[in-house]
Specification:
Elements lengths: L8 E4 L4 H13 L3 E5 L7 H6 L7 E3 L5 E2 L2 H11 L13 H23 L9 H7 L1 H10 L13 H16 L1 H5 L4 H11 L2 H6 L14 E2 L8
Helix pairs in contact: 1-3, 1-7, 4-5, 4-7, 6-9
Length: 225
């Protein structure tokens, strides 16, 4: 597939945690993309033809390669440019880094889905799945006792990869979450939620239509043409 557009094309959905972490890294990498914001409940035909599985994010490079997983897009971006050294190892070993991501994907995310969307499943107690995630949160809280962020004293890749899912978990019941005895985790989460990086990638954009003039952005305040 050939992509003859001016910049790589990014299909995104504003609230999806996978799309959020991808946009945060693309912003960090200072890469300009043609942003196509879509509705997951009304997926455009053009999008489904490119990626039949219908999940976001999806990126089409200028060479026409289609990347359908957030991690693939993230590492693609950071191989091009990593000015904030997100790929540096810092405090966490590769084993610990990979373990955090595996538990996020294999345990935390499935429990989160059942907690957030109980009606999609038959005969479940959503709070039991909520509570299954407390050990993961405790693990993060313990890591954050040693440094301001998960890997060092500034945000790095592991923070961007995990943060959107913790935010989504909190959003199900903010009052319950805010009463948890995880002081370090909550400060980490609130700091990231209030950061300029997060606010800039969470701006609302019009839903993409194939007849629209392309919209280009690197998720900064700079207007692009």
């Amino acid at each position: 597939m050939n992509n003859n557009t001016k910049y790589p094309i990014l299909y995104s959905f504003r609230r999806c945690p996978y799309a959020i972490r991808t946009r945060m890294v693309i912003k960090s990498a200072k890469i300009v993309v043609e942003l196509r914001e879509i509705k997951l409940k009304d997926k455009p035909k053009d999008f489904l033809e490119i990626s039949p599985k219908g999940t976001v994010p999806v990126l089409i490079t200028n060479s026409g390669q289609v990347l359908e997983e957030s991690l693939d897009i993230i590492y693609w971006a950071l191989r091009i440019n990593d000015p904030n050294n997100l790929l540096s190892e810092y405090n966490l070993s590769k084993k610990k880094f990979d373990e955090l991501l595996k538990k996020l994907e294999d345990e935390f995310k499935p429990n989160l889905d059942r907690y957030k969307y109980p009606n999609r499943y038959s005969d479940i107690d959503k709070n039991s799945y909520r509570d299954k995630n407390l050990n993961y949160l405790l693990n993060l809280d313990n890591l954050l006792k040693a440094s301001k962020y998960l890997n060092c004293n500034h945000a790095s890749l592991i923070d961007y990869l995990i943060f959107p899912f913790i935010r989504q978990f909190r959003n199900v019941d903010e009052n319950w979450f805010d009463c948890l005895n995880f002081h370090f985790l909550k400060k980490w989460l609130y700091d990231l939620m209030q950061s300029e990086d997060f606010e800039s990638i969470m701006k609302k954009y019009n839903i993409w239509n194939s007849n629209d003039i392309p919209f280009y952005t690197n998720f900064s305040d700079i207007e692009l043409t």
